[in-house]
Amino acid sequence: MSGTALDPKTAPLFPIAAKIAMGDAQMRKNVRHATDVIQTKRARVVAEMPDWQQLREAGRQIRQHTMENLDFYLEEFERNCTRAGGVVHWARDAEEARRIVVELAKASGSDEVIKIKSMTTEEIQLNQALEAAGVHAVETDLAELIIQLGEDRPSHIVVPALHKNRQEIREIFQRKMNLPELGDRPDDLADAARMYLREKFLRVKTGVSGANFLIAETGGVCIVESEGNGRMCLTLPETLITLAGIDKVVPRYQDLEVLLQLLPRSATGERMNPYNSIWTGVDVKDGPRTFHVVLMDNARTEILADEESRQTLNCIRCAACQNACPVYRQTGGHAYGSVYAGPIGAILTPQLQEMHYAQSLPYASSLCGACYEVCPVKINIPEVLIHLRNKVVKQNTAGVAGLFDVEATAMKAMAMIFRSEKRFRAAQRLGRIAESPLTGKDGWIGWLPGMLGGWTQARDLKEMPKETFRDWWEKRGKNGN
Amino acid sequence: MATETVANSARTEILRRIRAAKGGDSSAASAEAGWAAIERKYKRVSSRSREDVLELLEERLRDYDAQVMRVRLDDIATTVARMMSERGVQRVVVPAGLKMEWLPSGFEFVFYSEDADRRNGDSGGDALTAAELDGMDGVMTGATVAIAETGTVVLQNTAGQGRRAVTLVPDYHLCVVQVKDVVETVPEAMERLKGSATLATTFVSGPSATADIEMTRIKGVHGPRFLDVILAG
User: Fold this and answer.
1) 20 to 30 Å CA-CA from B142: which of A364, B23, B69, B122?
2) Does the complex come out with an ipTM higher than 0.90?
3) Widest Cα–Cα separation across chain B
């Protein structure tokens, strides 16, 4: 299974992966259907809220304020969580986080853990690390279970199996749960998952989760979910291990009044998701007796250090941008080579890789702005995309490499041409002569040779007009005729 | 400091990175001032009449597949009997502290006390293991707050609501909400919950559900598949 994990370090470039994904007609149909349904639901429940824009603005300000005071709020969370009986750990990177969670899971005495869907654990490929240490992780969210049993990979932040339809899911369950008679109605499939997991919920003594919000003021943790599998993992085991990015902290309990309105409506198009759990440390009469929180950096401080892209950290993982994105809706999630796909993935993934990998992702966008419009905390994703493109170019042309960079050389040549009227006129004449054999009868150019081919790979080019504006202007005569 | 552990050094390093990234420390005073300056122009108080708020709660609960009955306080027990009969429910777990006058005769109520709590595999005590809860037909509780706008009942680990597993494992949940505990908006609910923020808290909005298969909403995966609400007062 580890061989199929989405890893930006080994993933192919986005255009190559996207081209392959575009050939999978069934997957594209499934993604289109699912994202259409969520978008319609979201639009309906957002329209119910006359104060939606005010909520978004408050959400943006809360998140921005948190990042500006992140050290203070993390320390406050640690203090309050510890006082309430929780144990707080810190992890600089994915490797350290995996090591801590694996050690805690083994120390709890279990060779099996039940898991709540968590993108952060996907980000660090925790299941593979647990597996390698002899601890089997059982995914309990329906979609994650489909992914795990199907030896597949998540393709969406909120609905990770949305690329699969009911027939495909039935086939996986029939095979893996040994239910040859299973039907393909969604109710049948959900029932099968209920039966399959109930025994594990009642038996397994260690739970692993992510977190939606860490509340600095109280030391509490909040998780939102739909199925009740989360509540099972949070309340029935004896040990609970929660892994959270340092960006998940919120200042005060009251701030949930904003975030718990924005998140469900944006994520699943519900006024409130069926279950929100909030717990604080350990309560001897309710839930696990041992509670660990692992606060993980894993390049989040790198993002914090870049003022122009810091807003990336404001994300609350609702995936509304994925559903709205014309690129994601065509390619699905796997083409992004990361568990974070779509517009947010295009800015988050390369930054989590400190711009060493996934450099093609900031280009996986038409900059149409649909993502910005639906973002519940107003992250200006197009702005960050452009900033990151700039970073990629600068990085790749720094030092000696820049001297041999074709794009940079071409840009310099363009600058030289634009500086002189004579050179500009000559270039236009030359262009018209050069393009004539390439121009189709309809006046469009569909193919350009060599380096220029990059332009026509994804779009056609109109032929140059027979007469330039300058030529026309000069021919008009003095009185404007 | 020479004996600083690996764990401590991760903490020190992350906090150092954060401060370097922002160009300085944050203090309680700067956090306090910054937080107070956050613009909160969204709706924070009710704009509807009391009757409209209650009607909205009923409508929103029904919209997410819960059954709702609106009754006078005196009629709770008879309504409980009616709803449980309709659901074919007989053995019901009840957290200690629920009002006795809400319980009708003719059903088996299994009282559960927080103080006698015991876990899977332990023995003794009057409480219920998860496996025993799994054998119950249902659970009946009160609620701390209900939010009309979102169709939500909020449960906390207090008298008459019990620990979280009690309202999770049985397949049927009957929740009695008193009219005085109903608010219109999420901010009003958070304001009421603020004083007991550290209690284990669960927001329940309709029965357990999923939309993971082709975005079709399916009622009931792991939590109770059936939710009935009695709105009383």
Assistant:
1) B122
2) yes
3) 71
